[in-house]
Amino acid sequence: AVLVAGSANVDFLVRAPHIPAPGETVLGGDLTVLPGGKGANQAVACARAGGAATAMLVALGDDLFAPLIEQSLQGAGIALHIVRSPRPTGAALICVSDDAENAITVAPGANMALVPDDLPGLAGVDSLVLQLETPLSTVIAFAKTARAEGVRVILNAAPARALPAELLGAVDILIANQEELAMITGRGGTIADQLKSVGVPYVVATLGAHGCCAFADGAYWLQPAFQVTPVDTTAAGDTFCGVLAAALSMGAVLPDALLRASAAGALATTRLGAQSSVPVRAEVDALIAS
Ligand code: ADP
Known about the structure:
Number of domains: 1
Order of helices and strands: EEEHEHEEEEHEHEHHEEEHHH
Largest sheet: 9 strands, mixed
Radius of gyration: 18 Å
Strand content: 25-35%
Bound molecules: adenosine-5'-diphosphate
CATH architecture: 3-Layer(aba) Sandwich
């Protein structure tokens, strides 16, 4: 089984002609309220990928927004470990422009209340999926506990920040986009050089419309992107991570897992929203076969 331990937010999303500049007000379309948050998106992607039993540890407030998140996760068939916090349920304020760029402000709230003791027992868990929208000290503690119990630790290094060696040393698979990878390695240079310098056994760089590449077991792997017409890139990276975790949990080799994750990430860009844009297994199969 895959356990995702991380963030959940309610996304307040509006489309606008362009993303407002500082001090600017832009008249947008109707408000859409949708479940999101990197951890929850990844859990949904993992569950919809089919085959891998998926559970999620999440901290939610005692408010109107928590049920929206719970229903979405449960609806995807995810087993929930909920930590109830006095802080408000996490929220994200998202603006999507007509050219499919996005700008996001996150109010993490309850997500920042997750502490090391909240990690449930890991019996039956083969992979733990983590992101950086919960306290770093908690992420480090979770990674170390999982590592000590022989559970594969998959870290999506988002949002971008520098990471302590203590964390990287407990990670088996690191997934980062270009900006995140540059923050971790603290250097420019080629993607190939950066991938090699991280020092984690498997490192995957996602490159948006350019696909992804990985460095594992001393070799590089390249996976071109699937050709699609994006309308909203929100959760492409999360979908990629969740599907990669599911595929690896089911025993796929890395190139096959990268292929499935890329197809799912591409499909996620063709629809509006976060969890609402995550494809199911049959859609991924159809794109790969096309
Ligand atoms: P993030 O959203 O975290 O920045 P990326 O933009 O790199 O992540 O997207 C993750 C993956 O989703 C990419 O590696 C690619 O496989 C797929 N993807 C993203 N954008 C596109 C696109 N425009 N066309 C096709 N695939 C895409």
